[in-house]
Design a protein that fits this description.
Number of helices: 14
Shape: elongated
Distance between the termini: 28 Å
Strand order of the largest sheet: 4-5-10-7-9-8
Order of helices and strands: HHEEEHEEHEEHEEHEHEHEHHHHEEHH
Helix content: 40-55%
Largest sheet: 6 strands, mixed, barrel
Low-confidence stretches: none
Radius of gyration: 33 Å
Mean pLDDT: 85
């Protein structure tokens, strides 16, 4: 094997033009595949973060009541009227314990929410109230990172935090006292303890957060909860986990993948496009390498004939050119990966400044070692497969014919 490796490496070094061309082809394919995958993965992750970063992956609620048929015929059916239905979740703490037994469930938070009016002077503003324990809700929404004034995690039962746009619209400032009137006609006064900016206009312009106990009093739910929010370790498992919870506990579940079905389909199409681009990049690189190696075999046909006349076996000649392809693919893969890493690192350094001095990457990039490894492995395998045809042609060379022709 040492003879084949030595000869293959000599061919790599002596044919600098061909080697440079093939190495560049492999490097370009690896660089392109890695760049596209890291960038698109980063774009998708940021989009998911911005879209559902402050919301639950799954929401658990009481099921909607089903009207029960009493009697009827083929033309009409008498349906029992629902006189009173329970819409709140009893024993929410116990339900949270049960939910943690399902796979991928990372965090849960019981909540009470609804519509209310925020009274500021003589003006009224419609708002959406959400009450939950701050420590638990933080695991769901990460609201503390979005706070621009005041506090969130340490608020009391008489405190609220509001979006910055709502604060602008109402003229409310930190420390001001406002009145909330719920849909249950319960009226309470609260102190504005914090102002947040999530970057989502709808949330920042109409949402009010408070403690769970304060919301239970405002909406007169007692110790019950309206819903339980769930955060998963993998948001893409929301559909499956949601179905498991509904089937097992008989509760109504809603998940972000159903609510954002068009976005999920767009991501699927984007991933398919990414795979196609990667495939055609490898295919183009492989065909180019095969062409160059075929020319290399043709140019070295006389040398091959001499080697075979001196006792070199077909398998040895096959290994020589296969190893040549392997050396080229490894060098090209390393060069391509290093180039992609440098380019991605450079792009990740660009920042964009948002409101309140916040900054974020202009080009969201995720440098995943698995992406680099898979791109390099795919390029090496494709190059090896491309080198098989020239290697087989070299192994089948008739030494008598090529020597006589030379």
């Amino acid at each position: 094997m040492r003879f084949e490796a030595t000869l293959a490496w000599r061919y790599v070094l002596t044919s600098r033009g061909q080697t440079g061309l093939t190495v560049a082809a492999v490097a370009a394919a690896v660089c392109l595949i890695t760049f596209i995958n890291c960038l698109l993965t980063g774009v998708q992750s940021r989009f998911i973060r911005d879209l559902i970063g402050s919301m639950a992956h799954i929401s658990v609620k009481m099921p909607d009541p089903d009207p029960k048929p009493l009697e009827g015929n083929e033309y009409a059916t008498t349906v029992q009227k629902q006189l009173q239905t329970r819409t709140d979740l009893q024993r929410p703490a116990y339900l949270e314990t049960l939910l943690h037994e399902f796979p991928h469930v990372q965090h849960t938070a019981s909540s009470v929410g609804g519509q209310a009016f925020l009274i500021r002077g003589v003006r009224q503003f419609g708002v959406t109230v959400r009450g939950a324990e701050p420590a638990k809700q933080e695991n769901i929404s990460g609201l503390n990172d979005d706070m621009v004034q005041g506090r969130w995690l340490s608020i009391g039962p008489s405190d609220i935090v509001i979006g910055f746009k709502l604060a602008q619209d109402t003229g409310v400032k930190l420390g001001d006292t406002v009145t909330l009137i719920s849909s249950e006609r319960v009226q309470q006064r609260f102190v504005v303890a914090g102002i947040f900016d999530t970057g989502q206009v709808q949330v920042d312009g109409s949402t009010v957060f408070m403690t769970l106990r304060a919301a239970q009093q405002l909406f007169a739910t007692g110790t019950d909860a309206k819903s339980i929010s769930i955060k998963l370790d993998d948001p893409w498992q929301a559909g499956e986990v949601s179905r498991m919870i509904a089937d097992s506990l008989g509760l109504k579940t809603e998940n972000w993948m159903e609510e954002q079905a068009q976005l999920v389909n767009a991501f699927a199409a984007q991933n398919s496009t990414r795979v196609m681009i990667s495939f055609f990049s490898l295919a183009a690189s492989a065909f180019g390498i095969a062409s160059v190696l075929i020319v290399s075999v043709f140019q070295r046909s006389r040398q091959i004939g001499i080697l075979k006349s001196m006792g070199a076996k077909d398998a040895q000649i096959l290994r020589v050119f296969a190893l040549q392809g392997l050396f080229i693919s490894v060098i090209g893969a390393v060069v391509g990966a290093v180039s992609a890493y440098g380019l991605l690192t450079f792009l990740s350094g660009f920042k964009q400044v948002a409101r309140f001095g916040k900054s974020d990457q202009l080009f969201p990039v995720i440098l995943d070692p698995k992406t680099f490894a898979m791109a390099m492995l795919a390029a090496i395998v494709a190059t090896l497969l491309a080198s098989l045809l020239p290697a087989l042609r070299a192994a089948r060379t008739n030494p008598v014919e090529v020597i006589n022709e030379g």
